[in-house]
# Entry
Amino acid sequence: MSGRLAPGLVAVAAAAAVPLVAGQHILTALIVALHASYLALAWNVAAGYAGQFSLGHSLFYGIGAYASTMLYLKLGLTPWAGMFAGAAIAGVVGVLLALGVYRYNVRGIFFALVTLGAAEVAKGLADNWDWIKGPVGILLTMKAAPGEFFFLRREPYYYVALAMVVAMLVISLVLERSRLGQHFLAVREDEAAAEASGVDTYRAKTIAIGLSAALTAFAGSFYAQFYLYISPETVFTFEPQLTMMLGTMVGGAGTALGPVLGSVLFSGLGEALRNLPFENTRQVVIGSKLVYAILLIVILIYLPGGLITLGRRRS
Amino acid sequence: MTASRPAHGAGLLAVRGVSKRFGGLQALSNVTFGVGHREIVGIIGPNGAGKTTLFNVITGVYTPDEGDVELRGMKVTGWAPHRICRLGAARTFQIGKPFAALSVLQTVRIGALNRIESMAAATARALEVLELVGLADKREHLGKNLTVIERKRLELARALATGPALLLLDEVAAGLRPNEIQEMITLVRRIAAGGVSVLIIEHVLEAVMRLSARIVVLNYGEVIAEGSPQSLVNDPRVIEAYLGEAYTLA
Amino acid sequence: MTVSSYNARAMIGLDVVLQALLSGFFMGSVYALIAIGFTLVFGVTDIVNFAHGHLVMAAMFVSYFLFKSAHIDPYLSLVIVLPAFFGVGALLYVVVIQRIVEAPHSAHMMVTLGLLLVFENLANLFFGGDLRGITTTYTTSSFMVGPVSVPLARLAAAVVSLLAVGALSVFLGRTSLGKAIRAAANNREGAALVGVNVPRVYLVSFSLGTMAAALAGAVIVPFSLVSPFVGHEFILKAFVIAVLGGLGSVGGALAGGLLIGFVEALSSLYISASLGNAIVFAILIAVLLYRPWGIFGQAKV
# Structure
């Protein structure tokens, strides 16, 4: 680990220096890439480390987005704090969901479908909840106030996103080296053997979901403060889920750097392409999505451990 | 065997009147026996006799329909497997279950984490156990890349690392060559000498005969005989169970 | 929490309800066909094909263009569409699916999601994102049966769907290949031991499932709008129906499809579509937790 600390710090320092040279457009692409990386790392906690392949993480993303937004609109609470409230709510929802679902020993595709169902239920309810303006969504009009998590320029958003990714990387690395993290791995590999080794699998899975949920919610709040418009169609749909999964699975599930690698590749490049002056931008963007989809399939078949395995040697 | 008969050598594990049914199949019927401290007890019986089901009941994977399991004086019937492991019973799986994508060291360390909170101490303990079973030089190998005998040793190490008072071994000798069986017997003896009681399911009769102080014979989910290896070799009930009535010696 | 109120909460007459039931029956039959293709693949190969709904979409586009360019009626185009999509299914199986059959479920989900994205972006690239429809001679035709109006296009779609379901049942129950498929679905190793060519069975099942999706797509084009994004709705319905009916059960998928058709049609009279959707998914969750073998299935010991 210490051997990787130095290059890691250099990378962070380099990343921190980027705004000195990059224009607003490039920064936007980088922010999207960082946001996607963060999301992938958050999903990775449950899916990559603990093997709980959830298809419903948009539920937690949406909770984060709406919680911080509603707390700001109704109580004037700064989104910096609202973010944490959103994470707490999402964490509780995640834990309750897990407690209810794991009681019935739901696994694999059934578990995935339950989580998908949960996200769809949330979306349906959100569409019909007048208090949060239903399908119309909420447009955030904010004064340029750093204290309220709103900035006119991209640089501050970039630093926040960078900080979130770095924090998430630290959390992942600490988790990997912790007893809880080892329990996650055991659950992922073989639940029966894990139980037989003294691992409380019910508790471990529940913590995995709750932790992952809370972390995902932070990204939802960031989204709200960055794009300033949220609606069930934008935060409770499959889009964020797809982003998390693609980045993680392509980069390498169950590793710390894999999700970042995959997300930078997919989301970052995609966003960059969107901003370059092509003849027919739309075609290029869709074409790139097509290429990524094919790439995804190829990687999953021939490099199931993800792109990160290209850089490693394993006995 | 009637349930009122006191379990032999009971002190560590007591199985009393355990029955378990799956749909139309009565897998276990009124099984009663015990394992004492520092004892090696063997369980034998033809295929389908219910041996692994019995292990699953003892370790909490199944809850018996009737009867009780007591471990270290506590009733553990219906407990979740991880609690029973915490209390002191660890089992190996018949179909070797290494954590495929994890290293040998990681696998054993997960077992060590049962009693040890600190990762550093658990790692140290895991390395000790790996030395004992002879897998120390393979510690960075992934579970899926091990040979058959290595997997068996890994299973043993994983279970041992949990710090059990009772080790339940499910067919550790199956599929091994004669010299490997000898190695396994020596290893189990060494573990038992360290104070761990062993309950061993075995088909390889040589192994179970040489290891066990006492053997329990199961057939069709019932205990049909119990005693020392020598006394059972000529027991007509045992011979009949394995070979069928036609071969009962006069 | 308040539900957005609708004026239609005023008196709803019997004829409106009957109309809804009929509509539900028609769409339910098509949903059943879509779900059956999906559940067949899962029952046999244990693979959940997330791209199944997009196969329906692909067939819709093909029928759409055959009509727009060569004036071939969607029902006539089936002569081309069905074998073509059987081939597409076979191709997909050989190139992609067979390589992940042994992989964990997460790989199945991700790879078929990848296929979903391929289809969606291909369609988007070539046809654009707008909703399109065709108008055949019978698109708006209907006849009255009592107080209820029977739209011809939907009736035809339902009839063809039900016939296809029947044909599939006969195929699975009476032909040797069909029995081989059922055997492999039931017990892969056992079937292989008695001489069933399991890889071929997998190939045929996947191709049949694809073809069923294509049939559904072609018959709904006369009365539905198509865009690259309509596949999402179909796969979500397929999930719900297949789970309700018992994953792998053809009869269950039929019953489930009709049930969902009715539920969708009736609930649209009283509540918003999105709320109805939420309720359907809540039911899905309940079934997955309490009766994962389906409402119409049987628990396995």
Summary: DSSP finds nine helices and ten strands in chain B. Residues 178-193 of chain B form the longest helix (16 residues). Residues 106 and 123 of chain B are 8 Å apart (CA to CA). The longest strand of chain B covers residues 25-35.
